[in-house]
Amino acid sequence: MTNTTLNFKTAPGHEVLAAAGKKMLRPGGKAATEMLFEWADFQPGETVLELAASFGYSSIALAERFGVKVVGVEKNPDSVARARANIAAAGLTAQVEIVEGDIFHLERISEQFDYVLAEAILTMQSPSGKAKIISGIGDRLKPGGKFLSHEMLARNQEAEINQALSEVIRVNSMPLSESNWIAVCENAGLLVEKHLTGGMGLLNVWRMIQDEGFVDTVRIFWNILTKSQIRDRILAMRRVFQKYDRDLGYIILCATKQSSGSQKL
Predict the structure, then answer these.
(1) Tens digits of per-residue pLDDT, 128-178?
(2) How many other C-beta atoms can be found within 10 angstroms of the C-beta atom of residue 119?
(3) What angle do CA 179, 180, 183 make, to 5 degrees?
(4) Which residues contact 65 (CB under 8 A, 6 or more apart)?
(5) At CB < 8 A and 24+ separation, what contacts does 236-240 make?
(6) Distance of CA 169 to the CA centre of its chain
(7) Would you say residue 1 has pLDDT above 70?
(8) How far is Cα 49 from Cα 64, in angstroms, rounded to an integer?
(9) Which domains does the chain have, with CATH numbers?
């Protein structure tokens, strides 16, 4: 989506950040994602299902770095077309596939996978939406397969934070506490074996330099300074992040699909 077609007053927060030039839109940044990948211990030839694959960049990176086979699910047809073009340009059509689909209907994918990766997706869903998606994730995992999750965390004041975030991000935003995220997974038969929490760094200058690089961070700040509509929205988000600094953060989880017998114990 280009800046000329984006209504900055009503657009979702992640689209405003992307319009400013931000590429890393996960609450824990690259460091948290890299920890997830370390926990996963991907092996060549294993299979990964990535939810909300967008333009295919992370699916491509996974295939190139680890030699895994990746299926990405993406709802937006324009994004699907762009992702497929990116995959072809990378010479990975035999290793990476993007399917047009809805993460609420993962049953339409018949294959089971060694891993399912979902980052910054579940936070935006209602409690019933979270439960439905995670149930679908469990169905798409092989027994012993791993669910890799990276989401926003509300250590305390969940309801108040949900309301404040939804107002400035312009979409439903319902981060959970550490115990509630774990419970959502385990209710779907996914045993959380590893998890880690940390502070929200999405608009932290030093984190941005780590995630985006110095030159791109300067470019992002120039766009914020010179484009008033972008500036107003991003500053509003930053105020909420600062207000709830002690309670708002990120969580990463690695959960394993239990066998039917294990779930009954």
Answers:
(1) 999 999 999 999 999 999 999 999 999 999 999 999 999 999 888 899 999
(2) 23
(3) 90
(4) none
(5) 236/168, 237/13, 237/168, 237/169, 237/203, 238/203, 239/168, 240/164, 240/165, 240/168
(6) 15
(7) no
(8) 15
(9) 13-257 (3.40.50.150)
E strand or H helix at 60: helix 57-66
C-alpha Rg value of the chain to the nearest Å: 18
CA-to-CA distance for 198 and 103, rounded, in angstroms? 27
Question: pTM of the predicted model, to two decimals?
Answer: 0.89
Contact 137, 168 (CB under 8 A): no
Instruction: Report whether 82 contacts 100 (CB < 8 A).
Output: no
DSSP 44: T
13-20 helix and 214-226 helix, angle to the nearest 10 degrees: 110
Could you tell me the two tokens for 202? Answer: 């999405």
CA distance 256 to 161: 29
Tell me the C-alpha distance between 63 and 115, whole Å.
13
User: Helices (DSSP H) in 146-227: which residue ranges?
Assistant: 158-169, 178-187, 205-212, 214-226
Q: Residue 41: how many CB atoms within 10 A of its CB?
A: 10
